[in-house]
Amino acid sequence: MEAGLLHQGTPLVSPSIYCRKKLRPSPRVSSSSHLRVKAASSSGRGSADSNRTIQVQRLLKMSAVAAVASGTAISWWRTSHASHAASSGLGVTRRAYQKITETFAREYEEQTGQRLKFRLSFGGSGTQARAVCDGLPGDIVALALPLDIQKIVESGLISADWQKRVPNNGVVAESVVAMVTRKGNPKKIKDWDDLIRPDVNVITANPKTAGVARWNFLALWGHRMQQGEDAAKDFVYKVFDRVLVQPRDAREASDVFYKQGMGDVLLNYENEVILTNESQEGEGALPYVVPQTNVRVETPVAVVDENLRRQSAATREAADAFVNYLWTPAAQQEFADCGFRAVDPGVRAKQKLPKVKNVWTVEDKLGSWANAQQMFFKQDAILDWIQNKVGEARLAERRAGIKR
């Protein structure tokens, strides 16, 4: 979702929120990695119910700009696990959630008299999902890929009906895949078919490590999937054959394109592109194209049921309140201000983003994320076939003395 997020490790995009009761103030930490907030009643009395800490850990779903927009994830991490979190910069997802948590905490205190504090930390969506499965005490996760939440479901920590218990099947914001070009678009890149031209060099993150790159892969597949699997596979192979390098995440991919000047076109989340352009000094912003056939990039949020069962009713209430707040017009406007496509109709109607004629979803065209994983991303599936074939072709070129 998101355009520029900064994080280390694998991408997407998404945040995980933890609510933990804590009576002592937590140690001060860098705002770029954690922001821990102690909760106290406005009356100043600190009871077990009125004093609590909410920690928010984000996994940016985007692999293109450093933090998710390849997905974000909010999750609780104990201080002893702080090394797992990345802190390489300010990204769109982080910027949105900083504002949302600040506003929510203020309103929650006004309504309940309880002061909430949030700790924000950043890391890759897949990394955060694995960490929660391995025992990190996350109470809420907001990740770059629904597939990453499904992994936590399979671990038994999230109920299988998680999408039915919140609005919009758990999706709090959307985006699409965009193509960033050089100034003036000298190669006249307008649609997916231009990516396989011999004079066009492509930059995309690695689908093995970045959530954003999996969305890129799916968007490319969708361009030809109506013509059958063989046609789609051949097209995606031809695009990857034009890829110069595959950085590990969204931020590195953006750096390669914007700072190092490599490639003619960069594939990234639209929201990541918007944020990156906003951060460019002088005339550093670059034009981008949104193909008219595109995949709907969805950023989901879920409560980690098993972890919250161990918490007090007050903690569960605060966590549920925060999750539901994400669909309010105020929160949706924050997502919109950061380049996401809001899911609230009123907020969405006011956005001035490129219209997309045909937007498809994984569920509609592929059946489910489980099907997508089996077909494309598991070991020895289509992605491996494509990357192996590209590797063989590059090796043959080097042996023949051919330079790109």
From TrEMBL:
<dbReference type="InterPro" id="IPR005669">
    <property type="entry name" value="Thiosulph/SO4-bd"/>
</dbReference>
<keyword id="KW-0732">Signal</keyword>
<keyword id="KW-0813">Transport</keyword>
<keyword id="KW-0574">Periplasm</keyword>
<feature type="region of interest" description="Disordered">
    <location>
        <begin position="24"/>
        <end position="50"/>
    </location>
</feature>
<feature type="compositionally biased region" description="Low complexity">
    <location>
        <begin position="39"/>
        <end position="50"/>
    </location>
</feature>
<dbReference type="GO" id="GO:0140104">
    <property type="term" value="F:molecular carrier activity"/>
</dbReference>
<dbReference type="Pfam" id="PF13531">
    <property type="entry name" value="SBP_bac_11"/>
</dbReference>
<protein>
    <recommendedName>
        <fullName>Sulfate-binding protein</fullName>
    </recommendedName>
</protein>
<dbReference type="GO" id="GO:1902358">
    <property type="term" value="P:sulfate transmembrane transport"/>
</dbReference>
